[in-house]
Amino acid sequence: MEGTIKKLGQTEIYRGSRVHLVTETIQFPNGKRAEWELIQHPGAAAVIPVDADGKIIMVRQYRNATDGWTLEIPAGCLDHPGEDPLECACRELEEETGHQAKKMDFLYKFYSSIGICDEIIHIYVARDLVKTEQSLDEDEFVTVEHHSLDALLEMCFQGVIMDNKTISALLAYRYKYKL
C-alpha cells in the first residue's frame, strides 16, 4: 500500500563515532503513528580485488559482532558525509591489502540492513593491481589471503563466510562477469 508517509520528528538516543541511534515518529497514510528506531551511518565502500591470477584478495580480521575472525572483502566507512565512495574503496584497498588498482569498476550499491539502518555500501571491482604496503589503523589486525571465486562461494554456502556484503558482492561479481 503506497501513500504519504510523514516523518514527524526525530529524537537522538546515542551519537557514536561511526553510528547514531535515533527514534523517529512516523505517521502513516491511515493517520496512525509509530516510533521507529533507526541506526544512521555515513555509508561505506567495499572492493573485490582481483589479482593477476584471477584470485580474489580477501582480508581476515576480528569482528566484535561475531566475537571471532571473519573472511571478507576489503571495506571501510566513508570518512565524512559526501565522500566519494570510489575514493573510500581505493583507500581501503591499499590500507587493508597493500595494493592499488589501475582499474576500478563500480559493481552495485545496497542497503546493508534496510529494516534498521540507512547505511549504503558501494561495491567495486579492482583489477590491474600494483603491490604497495598495508597501512592499517592501530586498531586493525588484518591478514591477507588469496582465494579462487569458486572456493569463496563454497565457503559462503558452507557458512564459513557469513558477511552479507562479501556474499552478495561475490555473487554479483560472478553474475556480472559470467564466471
Automatic annotation (TrEMBL):
GO terms for biological process: nucleoside phosphate metabolic process; ribose phosphate metabolic process. GO terms for molecular function: hydrolase activity. Its cofactor is Mg(2+). It holds the Pfam family NUDIX. The keyword Hydrolase applies. It comes from the Bacteria. Residues 39-174 form the Nudix hydrolase domain. The keyword Cell membrane does not apply. Keywords: Hydrolase. This is NUDIX hydrolase. It comes from Anaerotalea alkaliphila.
